[in-house]
Amino acid sequence: MLKSSNLKWLLSTLFILISTVLISNVSKAQDKVTVFAAASLTNAISDIATQYEKDQSVQIQTSFSSSSTLAKQIEKGAPADIFVSADSKWMNYLQDKNLLKVDSKVNLLGNQLALIAPRGKAFKVELNKGFNIAGAFSGKLCTGELDSVPVGIYAKQSLKNLNWWDAVKMRIVGTQDVRAALVFVERGECDAGIVYATDAKVSSKVENIATLPETSHDPIVYPLALVKSASPQATAFYDYLKSDKAKVIFTQYGFTVNVH
Predict the structure, then answer these.
(1) Could you give the CA distance from residue 109 to residue 250 in angstroms, rounded to a whole number?
(2) pLDDT digit string (tens) for 83-114?
(3) Range of weakest confidence among 1-10, 22-31, 137-146, 242-251
(4) What is the phi/psi pair of residue 88, to 5°?
(5) Residue 6's CB: how many other CB atoms inside 10 A?
């Protein structure tokens, strides 16, 4: 049998060990930063997060979807620390709801719109108002939802500006985010698509037929901000997203940086 003193020592040691494990687990849970970012940023921010985690003992958790979906999730209390939107509309939406650290809001990146087709099924296009876009391809044109997903909003503006809207509006398939539109074109379920140039660049299954004129739509801007409930660790990764190291990766994927 254990002596009373030995039993006390054993219990004391077990208590210390259990406390240490619990404190360690709590610490690890706190050393996590959750980033909500537009779907078009999937590759770039995933790479940046991996690079950051190599140097810091912080876990970067990411959630990628359409900016509209993410903004609504944050509004409903989703535990996001950082938000990167593909347009100002949904960033301003959260700002109006008083859910952001307003002084942290900056325009991080820029992009372009690309008209794409499945690989091997490219068609000729002329970027002028007299071009018969309806006759250039058969089937559907995929892009984001036209009234809520940023790429769809930009696409609708461009189609109207080029005087192509009336000819193709009944053939447009609106998707939940830009990556879903890209997948539909990759599979050949849509014969054309309008996505960001960066999305066209990461896919070997589509052809970038044309870059739509920047004058045909609002400037494509990706604002970055800290959510009001952001953890202390979030500020460091927020700063890292603006750093030269991050800019190298964004540039590799085709984004423009230093947008104001």
Answers:
(1) 8
(2) 999 999 999 999 999 999 999 999 999 999 99
(3) 22-31
(4) -80, -25
(5) 10
Candidates 170, 158, 203; CA nearest to 185 is: 203
Q: Choose which CATH entry (3.40.50.720, 1.10.1040.10, 3.40.190.10, 3.30.365.10) describes domain 31-109+222-257.
A: 3.40.190.10
CA–CA gap between residue 207 and residue 61 (Å, rounded): 32
Could you report the per-residue pLDDT of 117-135, keeping only the tens digit for each?
999 999 999 999 999 999 9
Residues 86, 71: Cα–Cα separation, whole Å: 11
Class of domain 113-216: alpha beta
Residue 35's SS3 state is strand
Looking at residue 258, its pLDDT comes to: 74
In the numeric block, the tokens 């996505």 are attached to 195
Domain ranges of the chain: 31-109+222-257, 113-216
State whether residue 251 is helix, strand or coil: helix
Please state the pTM of the whole predicted model. 0.86
Domains 31-109+222-257 and 113-216 alike in fold: yes
The residues, any chain, with a CB within 8 Å of residue 125's CB and separated by 6 or more, are 115, 131, 133, 136, 209, 210
Task: Calculate helix-pair angle for 88-96, 150-161, nearest 10 degrees.
Answer: 130
Strand pairing partners for 60?
33
* Strand order from edge to edge, sheet including 206-211: 172-175, 141-144, 192-196, 113-118, 206-211
Measured CA to CA, the distance from residue 181 to residue 78 in angstroms comes to 25
Cα–Cα dist 81/227, whole Å? 5
